[in-house]
Amino acid sequence: MARSINDAGIALVKSFESFRADPYQDEGDVWTQGYGRTHGITADSPPITEPQACAWLAEDLQEFGNYVLEYIKTALSDNEYAALVSLTENVGTGPLIGGLGKVLNAGDKASTADHFLLWDKETIDGELVEVPGLTRRRTAERELFLTPDEEPATHNID
Is position 17 annotated as part of the catalytic site? Predict the structure, then answer.
């Protein structure tokens, strides 16, 4: 069953990724463009428009949402799902496969929220370092995860 991330989740991702027309290297030296796309991006990638970046983001969030649906077997509210998609878009499936996913699948949503905060580090120059931007993002994702849905419908990405 396909599921789409809600507007709150899209806004969260966009607020942390910001639009970049030209390719750039992030703090981990990964080539990135648009709203955080890394797949297929190189130093020589041509500039893109903001509508193209939104289309890429929709594709990427659908892909990462599919991972959430694959690994998380408990029912999720729209905001819980959106927070997990944002986390997965940023760090990959490690949290879903590891402790966060295990705690969530066991039904402990309160402890799950705290697991977001463990994913605020990045390997820089061969060393695992806490990154303030990641700490802010994990805190925002945790808050979204804990926020009750204002409306029950899942919103499509436009």
Answer: yes
The CATH number for 25's domain is 1.10.530.40
pTM: 0.89
Residue 72 CA to residue 104 CA, distance in Å, equals 7
**Tens-digit pLDDT string for the chain (158 aa):** 689 999 999 999 999 999 999 999 987 789 999 999 999 999 999 999 999 999 999 999 999 999 999 999 999 999 999 999 999 999 999 999 999 999 999 999 999 999 999 999 988 889 999 999 999 999 999 999 999 997 544 444 44
Residue 48 within any structural domain of the chain: yes
